[in-house]
Specification:
Helices cover 31% and strands 26% of the residues. The protein is α+β, with helices and mostly antiparallel strands and 156 residues long. A 5-stranded mixed sheet has the order 1-2-3-4-5. Strand 3 and strand 4 form a beta hairpin. The longest helix is centred in the C-terminal third of the chain and has 15 residues. The chain is globular and about 45 Å long. The N and C termini lie far apart (48 Å).
């Protein structure tokens, strides 16, 4: 299978949104996805690569090309690391394309983005219940860091 990975194009946002909801339906996230947050994410990305990137994995050629996966990445400053880190916020590959190195190609795209932006490292959060993703990240050289993640939503 021939797979191309590149930065997304704005006209691909509806298809990527479909995949974002597919990821949500699998229960992989912390909080449910909604259309408003998806739309806000694309508005934020349209500002430019300084805000982050969305990589897409495609199969097929030309007009027959089909998006089969995506990855969302956003930078943030880390005092501990002394520079910008790339946060892999979401990565998703259609179930029928898993185990075919599509996720690895997407993560290679992330690493290339991080290097071009001058980031010092990458970080991500994998849910404890998702042991498959743990094995995937470890195979790519990521280290599990012991800790507990906390979050708090700031309402109006």
């Amino acid at each position: 299978m021939n797979v191309e990975v590149r930065t997304y194009r704005h006209e691909e946002e509806p298809r990527i949104a479909e995949l974002m909801f597919a990821l949500d339906a699998e229960g992989a996230g912390i909080r449910p996805t909604n259309a408003e947050n998806v739309a806000r994410t694309f508005v934020y990305l349209r500002v430019g690569s300084i805000n982050g990137t969305c990589g897409v994995a495609l199969t097929g050629e030309g007009e027959e090309a089909r998006i089969i996966g995506y990855v969302l990445v956003f930078p943030f400053w880390s005092a501990e690391y002394g520079g910008l880190l790339s946060l892999v916020d979401e990565i998703y590959v259609l179930p029928e394309h898993r185990g075919q190195r599509v996720g690895e190609l997407l993560m290679n795209h992330v690493e290339a983005y991080a290097r071009t932006q001058g980031h010092v490292g990458l970080t991500l959060l994998a849910m404890n219940k998702n042991s498959r993703s743990h094995r995937f990240y470890e195979r790519l050289g990521y280290e599990a860091i012991a800790g507990t993640s906390f979050d708090k939503l700031l309402g109006d």
